């Protein structure tokens, strides 16, 4: 349990930082050094005097003697560079859930290329790491793909613009609640929607708060924002549209998939990743009856979930 403000939260994998000796540090995937100071607290910050003594952050191999595999180099070349991701104290930085979502997109990259999307959108873009990574992955499709990114936090919208610019990319970035003001104009036009929603169970009054809190506060069972996203995504998605969403065990993904099945969507887990406290699932949804290359069938999701862990963590039956 972590104390934050006047409430306590079970953070699960969504931690803005992981504490190491009282200094906030970020965690990164693969063969890279996973611990260095969070850029939310710059060197010499008066609020964190110890930060001035810390080394400059860098995304580097743990040891020069450790060989870096060709596969890892290929993965790094197909995703946004952490060193080019902009930051702001009130914007959620890339963490385990961000990396899981990007890994899911990488795992499905060949199918995404074959899919040849024309319009892609990220709902809740945060730092811009995910939308930038998606644009890099689809780079071989050239200028035929256009990107949109939204975030309720105006600071996040600005940080995303800076991250895209640093990578030589472009997207239409809008500060809005989910896709308010866009969903009517873009209805039925988006071929790929990606979202790492606020999924942490919190008091309802924290949902939609200003600043960084909005990036994780998910309300009861972490489902308040998730349940608002689905009808918006349903309206935005084209007939061949795909939705990639991060969920936490506490969100009861089995129930989420059944709910979407009732709306005519098939689903499949693309990436499942366990952390110290919880399990993350990146689920892909598509309209049932429309072929999704990475899927075997509309019921393929059902056998993939550890039901006992869902019953243990949720008071709502699947």
From TrEMBL:
- Pfam families with a match to the protein in the record: MTS
Q: List the GO molecular function terms.
A: nucleic acid binding; protein methyltransferase activity; S-adenosylmethionine-dependent methyltransferase activity
Keywords attached to this Swiss-Prot or TrEMBL record, sorted alphabetically, are:
Methyltransferase, Nucleus, S-adenosyl-L-methionine, Transferase
Gene Ontology CC annotation, any one: nucleus
For this protein, the record's Gene3D superfamilies field holds: Vaccinia Virus protein VP39 (3.40.50.150)
InterPro entries (alphabetical) = DNA_methylase_N6_adenine_CS, Euk-Arch_PrmC-MTase, PrmC-related, SAM-dependent_MTases_sf, Small_mtfrase_dom
Query: Tell me, which GO biological process terms does this entry list?
Result: methylation
Q: Where in the cell is it found?
A: Nucleus
- The segment(s) forming the Methyltransferase small domain are 111-200
What protein family does this chain belong to? Belongs to the eukaryotic/archaeal PrmC-related family.
Q: What is this protein called?
A: Methyltransferase small domain-containing protein
